[in-house]
Design brief:
The protein is mainly α. It is about 70% helix and about 0% strand. The radius of gyration is 32 Å and the shape is elongated.
Length: about 190
């Protein structure tokens, strides 16, 4: 069925990818929020710094999950490049995620533990959209599809047909038969 409907096949692959990204990302969110609340409640660090630490821990966890679960079938030929791009796009996601918390905390003075967690979670959601796009487009690149082999070069049917066209010295050439039925009858009559 997927051979007949490539759009259905692509949609199924994308659905699987989104589900696996959400599974790894969901556990990453739990790690992020747990570390955030642990650091926030056990240190005197400002809220956004606690969030940056938590995001960094979640980024490490997510890389392992994405590489070995969500994108396990993707190109693995250039790990240093992949990791570098992952760090760059994850850092951009970190800025997005913690920018939301920063604006809520210092711009609107919403600084209770509940408000911090709400805006931390909202920032994670916004950054996740960016991360999904960037990871699948730039970091974990799809392996190019292998094209089916071309027909055999030597000895294929085309070569056999061309061999039949070779004239043997001393033989009479066959006249070409026209495509129209009336012209064929004329050609048959001319041969008799």
């Amino acid at each position: 069925m997927s051979a007949r409907h490539p759009a259905v096949s692509r949609l199924r692959r994308l659905s699987r990818e989104v589900a696996e990204f959400a599974a790894v990302g969901g556990v990453g969110v739990l790690v992020n929020l747990a570390v955030f609340n642990l650091v926030r409640n056990t240190t005197e660090l400002p809220v956004v710094r606690c969030s940056i630490i938590a995001t960094a821990v979640a980024i490490i966890f997510n890389y392992i999950g994405f590489r070995y679960f969500t994108y396990r079938d993707r190109d693995k030929t250039r790990p240093p490049r992949e990791f570098t791009l992952f760090v760059i796009f994850s850092s951009a996601g970190l800025v997005i995620e913690n920018g939301v918390l920063f604006v809520a905390t210092y711009g609107f003075h919403w600084d209770t533990p509940l408000q911090n967690n709400i805006f931390k979670f909202l920032g994670i959601g916004v950054a996740s959209l960016f991360r999904f796009w960037s990871y699948r487009s730039w970091v974990f690149r799809a392996v190019p599809a292998v094209r089916p082999a071309e027909p055999a070069e030597a000895g294929d049917a085309g070569e056999i047909a061309r061999a039949a066209e070779v004239r043997i010295p001393g033989s009479r050439p066959e006249p070409e038969e026209p495509g129209e039925p009336e012209a064929r009858e004329e050609a048959v009559g001319a041969r008799r």
